[in-house]
Amino acid sequence: MKRFFLFTLIVLTFISNQLIAQNLIPNPSFEAQDSCPTVRFHGLTLVKDWTSPTNGTPDYFHSCGDWYYQTPKNTYDTKDPYQGNAYIGIANNDNYREYTMSQLSSPLKKGRTYKVTMFASTSNNSDYTSSGIGLYFTNNSYFDRTGSKFIEVNPQIENTKNQIIPSENWIKISGEFIAQGNEQFLIIGYFKEKMNFINISGKKPKLKHTYIFIDNVSTVLIKRPKLQLPPKGKTKILKTIYFEHNKYILNKESNQELTELTELLKDSNHVNIEILGHTDISGDEEHNITLSKQRAKAVVNYLVK
Hints:
Elements: E1 2-8, E2 19-20, E3 59-62, E4 86-92, E5 100-103, E6 113-122, E7 128-131, E8 133-138, E9 157-158, E10 171-178, E11 185-190, E12 196-199, E13 210-223, E14 237-238, H1 255-267, E15 271-277, H2 285-304
Parallel strand pairs: 1-14, 1-15
Antiparallel strand pairs: 2-13, 3-4, 4-13, 5-11, 6-10, 6-13, 7-12, 8-9, 8-11
């Protein structure tokens, strides 16, 4: 008889043997273009695989461009691309937003974890920078040609309020999320109605606005080894089952391994599972025992839903 144990631990366990798949973002550093940017033509229509989903007009910069939209020196800054020869720029204030959108090379898979990364830098010509730039994945393409105000959605990845986008260098914005399934488009920009402006120049113009460069965008599937049964007579402990402190609601981080366990159980008819709920040592004993049972029950409910 095959047995393995499932512990509901709150301790983070690092998975050292995860594998990273290929980037699902086409033309991730904006290198491929139909023609070089000039004063007259410098929008995303020049860039392969990228477009603007609104009436906003992001700018395109490339080393082959004219003096106005060249890299590294252009009318907005003197800044080397983070990678390659190109980047794009988006202007934003409370009444005007610019976004960029691309279709993924393949849809995201439900229940799988993806790592998302991009690099951003504020133009030296900007008096303000702003945190809160985000990356939003959606099943459908988005086009709104009626205006250029903010898109009201909740991005899966967003830089925090404390993470200022500097002008002197590039900053990495990244995170992981679990796909709902079939997301096929990525939109990058600011998705909050009010922007979190941070003055970086000491000047105080009447209109607060910021200009952000974007480069090297990536979305990759995190390939973790598929859950396997242990050898006969051995046990296997799952250590990535997390809960909020003092609660029995499963964190999203638990979905990956529990989903794999569910699939494993469908294919295995002779498996015994022992689910043990745990808490830390804070709180009284009676409360912790009750919470442990509730956590174990939450795992059971996930597996049989």
